[in-house]
Structures are given as C-alpha cells and as structure tokens.
Amino acid sequence: MTALKKPRRTDDPWDLTERPHTKAKLRLLGDYFGRWLTIWNAPKQRGWASSDWYVIDLFAGQGVYADGDAKVSGSPLVYLEQIARVGSKLETNGIRVHLLLVELNPKNYEMLKNHVAEFMEAHSEVKEIVDIKLMKSNCNSPDVWSEISSLPLISNTPLFMLIDPYGFQIQRQTMDRLVAVDAATDILFNYMVSGVKRAQGIASKPEEQLTQRERTTLTTYAHFLGKDVTLDEDAESPQEYANAVFGSRGFYVVAYDMDYPDRVGTLYYLLFVTKNRKIADMARKMFGGAKKQNYAGQLRLGDTEQFTAEITFFAPDGAA
Ligand SMILES: C[S@@+](CC[C@H](N)C(=O)[O-])C[C@H]1O[C@@H](n2cnc3c(N)ncnc32)[C@H](O)[C@@H]1O
C-alpha cells in the first residue's frame, strides 16, 4: 500500500510558520487601518466626510492563519479588531463601517464566514457599528462590480480597499473601474513582482514550446497588465503599472518592497495608493519605520528617516 504523502507545512498558505513576509504584511495592514479609522474619526474630517465608511476586500481569504499553535488574524479580522479597539469613539460619532468581503474559493469562503461569525458573536459591542456583506465570487465578475456600483459612494465617502491576490488574479479592467469610483479612496495593493518576473520569463520562450499551463499564465498576465502596460524594460519595478493604473488617475503611490525571507530580492510590492499627499507621506513614514526591523524583529542600523527616504514614491501625472 502506498503511504499518503503528507503535505509540506510550507505549502499551506494559511500556515504562517515560514511566511514572515505575510506576518509583516498583516502588521502593516493593521497599522495602516488603525490610522485610517483615527484620521477619519478626527473632528476635522468629521466636518465634511460621510459617516458611512466602506472597506472592500476583494481577496478576503479564510480570515485566520495558523502560526504554530497560535492563531493570527487575516485581513477581515484585522479590520474588525481595529474597529472594536476604537468602537466606542466611532459609535459616539454615529459612524457605520460597511465591510464587503469577496472570496472565490468555496472552502476559504466557508472558513471566512465562520471566523467572521465567531468574531461578531464574541464582540457584540461592534454590532451597531459594523455591517458585513460576504460574497462567494470572483472579484472580476459582473456580480461583484454590480454590488460595488450599488454602494452609495460619493466624493466624501471614506473608502479603503485591500487588493491582495496570490498572483495576477485582479484584472486590469477591474482595477480601472475601482480607481474611477468617486470616493475618498485609499488602496493597499499587493503587486506580485515575483509573478511578473516569472510571467516575463515564460513570455520570452518560443510560442511552440509553451505548455498549456504556461499559456494560461500568459493569458491571465495579459488581463492583469492591460493593453497599455508592456513591462518590457524593467519587470523589477512597479512604476510602469503604477503610473498607468494609478498615476494617470491622480493617485500617489508609495511602494513597500517586501523582501524574500530566504534570499535576496523582492517578492512583492505593497503599493499604498491615495490621492491625498499628506496621507501618502504618512504611509511612507510608516513603511520607513517598518523597514527598520527585519523579519526576526531585530532593529537594522540607520534611522527611520533614512529608511523612509529609501521607500519608493511615485507622484501622479503633473504633481510634485
Ligand atoms: C493572498 S490570499 C488573501 C489573504 C487575505 N487578504 C489576508 O490578508 O488574510 C488570496 C485569496 O484570494 C482568493 N482568490 C483568488 N482568486 C480570487 C478571485 N478572482 N476573486 C476573489 N478571491 C480570489 C484565494 O482563494 C485566497 O483566499
């Protein structure tokens, strides 16, 4: 009898034991989202902004990761925890945070649904503040777009979007629609540079040598890039994509280069995208502060200003 092969722990993306970069991403998300809540709840913003705030997570995942025997919250629970932390302040100001969580994989979706329900059960204090909609869908599909277009978003509506695919599952057409939404939009986007480089490698092979899988990758890649981005010159930098998608729409982009944990090079860029220059500067400082620590939590030599200056920053067309 053949023994069943036990899956390697590291193959499971919901096991963080050997994924310090995912832990780092979740820390940055929590840090930023905590600030997002504080900024929008400040008196100055309260004077003009809507009290209905929106969070759209297009690749929501399972909601919880394992880290040894411990549990680590995935993005949906990160929002909920941060909201619970300042819940009474939000409630005082009559804020309602609407979460739209989209997950395609049925198993992940079920886990997500359960984890969110468990959280809400344990935190009745946020029930009045949070309104959650879960969708088991492809985020590029018409039903998701129709849901987003039906939201009462206008230019004074705080909107935070997390776009966190494994590769190029976000299509350019979807991205173009999202950046055109009329709202006070901030986006955190995982630009998978390692995937881009791999796809560029495949694209350089002679057509007749491509496997079916490679052909599918190239089709997905083409839908991701859009027709105006070629990335011929420098697949290493997110600049061409960032300019085409965000810069042309008046967004600043701050790029946090997430290193491979075990070799030299960039695994992905976390792109922070906003129209507000002050918020872009704040995100850049936050990223600089995070760079001061390595994955093991040890402080690197150099001060935060120096790390901040090294964080890549793209201004939108025509802005300084
Ligand atoms: C990197 S994980 C998301 C992790 C999550 N944002 C977090 O921080 O906890 C990507 C997730 O997107 C889901 N997914 C992949 N393609 C998708 C699509 N087209 N639409 C929606 N979800 C998708 C996968 O099943 C997976 O759960």
SS element count, helices: 12
Classification by helices and strands: alpha/beta
- CATH architecture name: 3-Layer(aba) Sandwich
- Residue stretches low in confidence (pLDDT < 50, at least 5 long) are none
**N-to-C SSE string, H for helix and E for strand:** HHEEEHHEHEHEHEHHHEEHHE
Strand order of the largest sheet: 5-4-1-6-7-9-8-10
Question: How many domains comprise the coordinates?
Answer: 1
Overall pLDDT level: 93
Q: Which shape, going by the Cα principal axes?
A: globular
CATH superfamily: Vaccinia Virus protein VP39
List the main descriptive attributes of the protein structure presented here.
two-stranded antiparallel ribbon, binds S-adenosylmethionine, 320 residues, alpha/beta, eight-stranded mixed sheet, Rossmann fold, 12 helices
Report on the architecture of this protein.
There is one protein chain. The chain has helices at 20-41, 43-46, 75-85, 87-92, 106-122, 142-150, 172-179, 193-203, 212-225, 239-245, 277-291, 304-310, and strands at residues 52-57, 64-67, 70-73, 96-102, 130-135, 158-163, 184-191, 252-259, 266-274, 312-314. The protein has 320 residues and is α/β, with parallel strands linked by helices. The protein has one domain: Rossmann fold (3-Layer(aba) Sandwich). An eight-stranded mixed sheet has the order 5-4-1-6-7-9-8-10, with helices on both faces. Strands 2-3 form a two-stranded antiparallel ribbon. The longest helix is centred in the first third of the chain and has 22 residues, at 20-41. The chain is globular. The model has no long low-confidence stretch (mean pLDDT 93). It binds S-adenosylmethionine. Residues 26, 58-61, 74-75, 102-105, 108, 138-140, 162, 164-166, 169 line the site of S-adenosylmethionine (SAM).
